[in-house]
Write a structure and sequence with these properties.
The complex is a heterodimer of chains A (257) and B (394). Chain A has eleven helices and nine strands. By secondary structure, chain A is of the alpha/beta class. In chain A, 58% of the residues are buried. The chains are: A alpha/beta (257), B alpha/beta (394).
C-alpha cells in the first residue's frame, strides 16, 4: 500500500508541486521539507524534462532552470532519499513518460519502492497507454495516478473505475498555469466520478489564490497547486523558504475553511 | 495496447484532455474517407487547385552524367505552394471544415507546411495560426511573410531549442486549450494516432500516381525509391504504395548535418534510441536520461529529433533502409541538380538527390531510381548562399 490515503486524513488535502533541481538540488530538499512543515499533505516532485508539453510558461521555465545544471533522474532520486531521512509525507513524481522509459521501467519503479515514492503522475500516459507501467508500478506499491479532464465525459467511468491512489481532476482546458477563474462545471465532473469510485478527488490546473482553494475544498478532497509555488521559487531563487511557508500555510488554511 | 501501432511503435501518448478529440478525429476521418462526396471534393481540389497529378520527370542529363541507373524525379515541387505538404493539408483542412471547426493550427519547420496550411485555410475560409521556432522564422523569413500574406498568424516560438520540435510543443499547448473549435493540422507522419495514419494516407497519392506512371512509361516499377526523412511524410507518401512490391528498395535520407559522429545532426534513425515523445513511441535523438536532444541540420525541414512511427517499423522489419546525408553532400546535390536539370530542389529534397548521386553510378543502366523531389528550393537560396559564404546584401 502506498501512503497516499494518509494525505487525505487531515481535512481537504493541500498538494504542492515543485520541479526537482529548481533552483538547486539542495534547495529542492529544503523546500519540500518547508512545504511539509507549512501544511502540505502530499508533494508532487516534477522530474525535469526538455519538452514539458502539458506545462504553461512558469513550469516550462522551471524545467529549463533545472536542466541548465543537468538535474538527472538519479539526482531526483537523491533528493527523495534525503527527504525520506526526515519525513514520511506522501510523495509522488510528476513526470513525462520518456525519462521513465529511458531509465527502464523495472529499474525506475524498484528505486521508487526503495525510497518510498507513493505514486506517479504522467501527463502523456492516458488510460489507453497505462499498460506501459501499471503492472510494474503496482508490484512496487507505486500508484499510477489517473487524470480526468473537462473533456473526458464518457471516459470518466472507464478511467475512474481503474484508478488508484487519488484522481487528479484537471480543472480547465489548456496547459498548467495560474488562472483568474475556473469556468469548468467541476461539480458535475466530480459527481460523475464519485458514482464509480470512493478514491479521493484532487483538483488542479489554474488554482493559485486562497479564495479558489477555499471554493474547491468545498467540493473536492484535495487542492493541487503547481505554477504558483514554482513562481515563488522563480522569484525568490535560493531564498524562497519563508515565502513558500507563508503561501502554503495560507493555502492549507483556506482548504480547511 | 492502444490503437495506431506499427509493430511496437505509434500509440497515443498524449494528455487526457485531447483523447476524446483524437477518438472523434479518427471517427470523422473514417466516416469522410468512405463518403464519396468528400473524396470527390478532395480529389477535385488536388487536381484543380494543387495541380495533381505531379509529373514523373526523366532526368536525362543527370542520368547520363552519373552513368548508371535511369533517374526519375517525382515532381512534388511543382504542386501549388511548392511542396508535397499541400497533399496532406487539403485533406486535413477540408476534414476540419466538415467537422465544424472554424480554426486550424499547424507547426512548421522550413515554413512549407505552414504556408500550405495557411493556403488551404484561406481557400476554405478558416482561421489559421502557425507555430514556428524563432530560429526558423529567421532562417525562413520569406515564408513567415508569405503565411501572413495568406492571412495566417505566425507565432514565433521561443521555448526550448526554438526550432521544429518546440513549434510542435506549442501547437499541442494551443490545441489543448481550444479543442472545441480547432483542429491541429500536423504536417508529418508523426504525433499520436490517428495523425501518422491520416498524414500517410493523404500523402500516399505520391506513390499511387508514381507507381502507375512507371508502369505507363517504363512498363515496370523502379528498383529504388529515395526520399528525405524528417518526420517522414513525403517519404511515407513515396514509399507507401510500393511497400508490397518487395523488389522496390525504399531508402530514406536523414539529415546527417555536420556528420553523424558529431553532435550536429538530426539523424534519429542512425543515432537515436527508442522513446516516447510527441504522442508516439518511435525513435528519437536523446541524451542521457531521456532528455530530447537538440538537433541540427542545414535544412529546417529535417531538423526534427525523431521520425514517424511507421518509418521506425519499416526499418525494423528491413523493408526500408535509412541513410544519413551530410549538409555538404546535400548542398552539393542542391547545386548539382540546379545546374544539371535546371531544377532548384528544396534543401530537404537535395538530401535524397545526394543519395541518388551516390548509388546511381553503381547500378545498371536498365535499373531505375525514383527520387521524391518533395519541394522546390527558392526558399533556400539565401541560406545556401550563406553556407557558401556568398553575401547577397553586398
Amino acid at each position: 500500500m502506498s501512503k497516499i490515503a494518509n494525505a487525505f486524513e487531515n481535512g481537504t488535502a493541500f498538494i504542492g508541486f515543485l520541479t526537482a533541481g529548481d533552483p538547486t538540488i539542495d534547495k529542492t530538499v529544503e523546500y519540500i521539507l518547508a512545504m511539509e512543515e507549512a501544511g502540505c499533505d502530499l508533494i508532487e516532485i516534477g522530474i525535469p524534462f526538455s519538452d514539458p508539453m502539458a506545462e504553461g510558461v512558469v513550469i516550462q521555465d522551471a524545467n529549463v532552470r533545472a536542466l541548465k545544471h543537468n538535474t538527472t533522474t538519479d539526482d531526483v532520486f537523491d533528493i527523495v532519499s534525503r527527504v525520506r531521512q526526515k519525513t514520511d509525507i506522501p510523495l509522488v513524481f510528476l513526470t513525462y513518460i520518456n525519462p521513465v522509459f529511458f531509465y527502464g521501467y523495472e529499474k525506475f519503479f524498484k528505486r521508487c519502492a526503495e525510497l518510498g515514492i507513493d505514486g506517479i503522475i504522467s501527463p502523456d500516459l492516458p488510460f489507453e497507454e497505462k499498460g506501459e507501467i501499471v503492472d510494474i508500478a503496482r508490484k512496487n506499491d507505486v500508484d499510477v495516478i489517473s487524470l480526468i479532464a473537462p473533456t473526458s465525459s464518457e471516459r470518466i467511468k472507464m478511467i475512474a473505475s481503474d484508478a488508484s491512489g487519488f484522481i487528479y481532476v484537471v480543472s480547465s482546458l489548456g496547459v498548467t498555469g495560474m488562472r483568474a477563474e475556473i469556468k469548468t462545471d467541476l461539480n458535475a465532473i466530480l459527481s460523475d466520478i464519485r458514482e464509480v469510485t470512493d478514491l479521493p478527488l484532487a483538483v488542479g490546473f489554474g488554482i493559485n489564490t486562497p479564495e479558489q482553494a477555499s471554493d474547491i475544498s468545498k467540493i473536492a478532497d484535495g487542492v493541487i497547486v503547481g505554477s504558483a509555488i514554482v513562481k515563488i521559487i522563480e522569484e525568490h531563487g535560493e531564498d524562497a523558504t519563508e515565502a513558500l511557508k507563508e503561501y502554503v500555510s495560507s493555502m492549507k488554511n483556506a482548504c480547511l475553511e | 495496447m492502444s490503437k495506431g501501432r506499427y509493430g511496437e511503435y505509434g500509440g497515443q501518448y498524449i494528455s487526457e484532455t485531447l483523447m476524446n478529440e483524437l477518438i472523434y478525429l479518427e471517427e470523422q476521418y473514417n466516416h469522410y474517407m468512405n463518403d464519396p462526396e468528400f473524396v470527390d471534393e478532395l480529389n477535385t481540389l488536388l487536381k484543380e487547385y494543387a495541380g495533381r497529378p505531379s509529373l514523373l520527370y526523366y532526368a536525362k542529363r543527370m542520368t547520363e552524367d552519373l552513368g548508371g541507373a535511369k533517374i526519375y524525379l517525382k515532381r512534388e515541387d511543382l504542386n501549388h505552394t511548392g511542396a508535397h505538404k499541400i497533399n496532406n493539408v487539403l485533406g486535413q483542412v477540408l476534414l476540419a471544415k466538415k467537422m465544424g471547426k472554424t480554426r486550424v493550427i499547424a507547426e512548421t519547420g522550413a515554413g512549407q507546411h505552414g504556408v500550405a496550411t495557411a493556403t488551404a485555410a484561406a481557400l476554405l475560409d478558416m482561421e489559421c495560426e502557425v507555430f514556428m521556432g524563432e530560429v526558423d522564422t529567421k532562417r525562413q523569413a520569406l515564408n513567415v511573410y508569405r503565411m501572413e500574406l495568406l492571412g495566417a498568424k505566425v507565432h514565433s516560438v521561443k521555448s526550448g531549442t526554438k526550432t521544429l520540435k518546440d513549434a510542435v510543443n506549442d501547437a499541442f499547448r494551443d490545441w489543448i486549450a481550444r479543442v472545441h473549435d480547432t483542429n491541429y493540422v500536423i504536417g508529418s507522419t508523426m504525433g499520436p494516432h490517428p495523425f501518422p495514419m491520416i498524414v500517410r494516407d493523404f500523402q500516399a497519392v505520391i506513390s499511387a500516381e508514381a507507381r502507375q506512371q512507371f508502369l505507363d512509361k517504363e512498363g515496370k516499377l523502379p528498383n529504388a525509391v529515395i526520399a528525405c526523412v524528417g518526420g517522414g511524410s513525403n517519404a511515407m507518401g513515396a514509399f507507401y504504395n510500393f511497400i508490397d512490391d518487395e523488389e522496390v528498395k525504399l531508402i530514406g535520407c536523414e539529415a546527417g548535418g555536420k556528420g553523424v559522429d558529431t553532435p550536429y545532426n538530426a539523424a534519429a534513425l542512425t543515432n537515436g534510441k527508442i522513446g516516447i515523445f510527441h504522442g508516439m513511441k518511435s525513435i528519437f535523438s536523446q541524451g542521457d536520461y531521456g532528455q530530447i536532444a537538440p538537433v541540427y541540420s542545414v535544412s529546417a525541414g529535417l531538423d526534427y529529433p525523431g521520425v514517424g512511427p511507421e518509418h521506425a517499423y519499416l526499418r525494423d522489419i528491413g523493408r526500408a533502409q535509412y541513410v544519413p546525408i551530410t549538409d555538404e553532400e546535400a548542398v552539393d546535390a542542391f547545386e548539382y541538380l540546379s545546374k544539371m536539370e535546371g531544377i532548384i530542389p528544396a534543401i530537404e529534397s537535395a538530401h535524397a538527390v545526394a543519395h541518388a548521386m551516390k548509388i546511381a553510378p553503381e547500378m545498371d543502366k536498365d535499373e531505375i531510381i525514383m527520387i521524391c523531389l518533395s519541394g522546390r528550393g527558392d526558399k533556400d537560396v539565401r541560406s545556401i548562399a550563406e553556407y557558401r559564404g556568398v553575401d547577397l546584401n553586398e
